Amino acid sequence: MEKRNYTRGVNPRGPRREKADNIQMIFGLRPITEALLAGKDLERIYLQKGQRNSMTIEITELAHRANVPVSMVPPEKLDTLTRKNHQGAVAYLSAITYLPLDNIVADIYEKGKTPLILVLDRITDVRNFGSIARNAECMGVDAIVIPSRGAAQINGDALKTSAGALNIVPVCRENNLKDTLNFLQNSGIQVVACTEKGDVDINAGTVDLTGPTAILMGSEEDGISPEYLKKADAKVKIPLVGQIGSLNVSVASGIILFEVLRQRLAVPG
């Protein structure tokens, strides 16, 4: 019978970060399969490159259905994650529970609220993500949307930087952000991209942010993907007067979300 291997609190960066991250690791093909079948929220799965059998195929299929990213890595990478008999498979349980976006949007409308959604395209720094989540909670964001691939791992650092916001604001992990933007627009929610390539300044008053709105923010490296930028109903930029031509994405998110809040608070009633 296959031995089931579990260990808690293991962090790939070493024991010094174990307490801060506090993430549960699962290793072994059968335990990961059972976790997926049980509906556990997994942050990421690592499978050994070149290993293909009925169980790895099942894990890959189940992970795809659950929007869990799977990385094919060499055995040396897996050995750095754990010294245990991992059987070519390691996974991390998520520190939060991901929620379906369609249910959240429906619930917002049913409550008579005006949706404010924050869509993050490939934010990879965990502290940036935590700071953004904190901004989002303070400014009344109803949900944060991230892609299943290319997003920061939500670990102990992210939770700590968010000051608890990641336990309050729902986070939705989506396989295809293009489909997600289509869904939001079909739900009556305008998509406003915050980008240096924006047509107007956010404080120009030409973009109405008082209605149902999704704010789209891009990655630290190259901003919003061109295919998503084309989908936006409006493109706004933050006016800058200094010599440095860009802001940290967490700072930028706070500025644009404050503008949304400012406009909404200015509406009578």
Automatic annotation (TrEMBL):
- GO terms for biological process, alphabetical: methylation; RNA processing
Q: Which GO terms describe its molecular function?
A: RNA binding; RNA methyltransferase activity
* Top-level lineage group: Bacteria
The gene behind this protein is rlmB
Query: What NCBIfam families does the database record attribute to this sequence?
Result: rRNA_methyl_3
UniProt entry keywords in alphabetical sequence: Methyltransferase, Transferase
List the record's Gene Ontology CC terms alphabetically: cytosol
Annotated RNA 2-O ribose methyltransferase substrate binding domain ranges read 25-99
Native source species: Adhaeribacter rhizoryzae
- Chloroplast listed as a keyword: no
Q: Under what name is this protein listed?
A: 23S rRNA (Guanosine(2251)-2'-O)-methyltransferase RlmB
Q: Could you confirm whether the keyword Transferase appears in this record?
A: yes
